[in-house]
Structures are given as structure tokens and as C-alpha cells.
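Handoff note, outgoing to incoming analyst
You'll be picking up this chain. Sequence as last confirmed:
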Amino acid sequence: MADVAPASADRVDPSAALAALRDELRGLGPVVVAFSGGADSAFLAWVAHDTLGPEGARAVTAVSPSLAPEELDDCRALAGEWGLRWEGLRTVEMDDPRYLANDGDRCRWCKTALMDVLAPAAEAAGATVVLGVNVDDLGDHRPGQAAAAERGAAFPLVAAGFTKAMVRDASRALGLRTADKPAAACLASRVPYGTPVTLGTLDRVARAESALRHLGFTEVRVRHYDDTARIEVPLADMGALTDRAADVVAAVRRAGYARVTVDLEGLRSGNLNADLPG
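Most recent structure output, in case you need it:
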């Protein structure tokens, strides 16, 4: 990945970080923001729009089967609420056999498909593609970041020293409703490495997670193991999950799973990365 020199988060005042982010965006602008609707990309899209205006900031959501339908709906809603210049563009990672194979580089091929759409749009406007990567993201296994950087994408949150907590704090101070939005990684991240990604699998996961959110579990992952679903919720929600076991099992079975299990370690972002070779 291209070298990025983040500021030291423990020495950055939040107001100074926001000022640094605005300066970074002015230096990069105009920009095309990869807008998934999560806390990071939403914050970046809002600040870019507020700093550069609608002519200087365009928010684009990658539309594909790996994006939960509710997330696409929320991107559209946020764009309307905030007056963003927004559009959804379809990506075709599902046409790439390297992505479908779902090895440790799956995210690389996903971001490659994203940049195949965003880079030409940015180039036509003389703009820079920017992603909502924060400082905390740099330590995990994320080959997609390298793929995006190799294609010229920039990470202004990193350059300004924003951690995930700082993004949420700054979003809260600005009154953005995404400040406390639970993380929602792409649906393919629910499929263990080595298990092929298929449209049917992504649909099953999406329907199971949607059903559980309707039961009140706002932070949830359904890991896909063939006909078995492994549910992850925060440890604080484990009691509620077991109290509603019958409803939970029925909801997940309606999505197409024969067996329903619970991960007693609770929800951990990126925990399937533990299965990768060291």
C-alpha cells in the first residue's frame, strides 16, 4: 500500500483533526467519496460536502449483491438528508472468479472492482477517489486498501489522524445520525475463506441478518457455514438472544438455514481473518 503518514491519534485534538481533514480534502479536491453509509464513509462524505460543496464532492455507493439492501436504502436516505451529490454505481466483482473463490485476497478483488467504477468517474472530473479508512483499520488484514491505493485512492481520515472513536465523536459533535451506527462490513465477509461466494449465499446472509435486526439485534453477524448459521452479537446482547431463542431460530431458518448456532465469544469484526496463515 502507498505510504500514508497518520498523525499520532493520542496527540490530536478533535477540532484540530477536523481542521486537518478539511485541509487534506482541499488539497485533494475535487473528490469522489466511496460511500458505503457506515460511520467512517458517511463522516467523510459529509465533511467533504461541507468543505468542498456539491461541485467539489461527489458521493458514490457501490451497488452489488455484497451490499445489504438496507444499507443501500440508508445511503440514499442520508444523501437526501444531507444534500449530498450522490449516485449508486453497479460493480461487477461477482463476475470475477478470483473474488468468487474467496481466498485471503478476496477484498483485493472487491476493491479492484470498486476502483474500476470510481477511478474513471474521478478521472473524467479531475477528482481523487477517497475512502473512509481510519487509523485503526491499518493494522488488520485488508488487502483491499492496498488495491485501492495502488489505483490512486487517498485515505484522508488516516492523514488527519482519525481513529474510529474519533470519527464517532466528531460525527456526534456535528449531529450526524451515523455517529453510533453499528459497523456493517460487506456480506461476503460472513463467508469463511475457501468457501465460494455465491449470490444465493449472500442473499441468505442478508435475509438472516435483516430478520435478526427486526427482532431488535442492531449489531449482528450471521457467519455462513453451508446449512449452518453462526450468530454473533455483542456479549451484552447474549442474554436477550437466548431469551428469544425460539424467535431467533425461526427467523434464521426462514432465511434458508437448517441449523442455528451462537458464537459464545460474541461479535468480533474480522474474526474470520484468524483462519488465514500467519
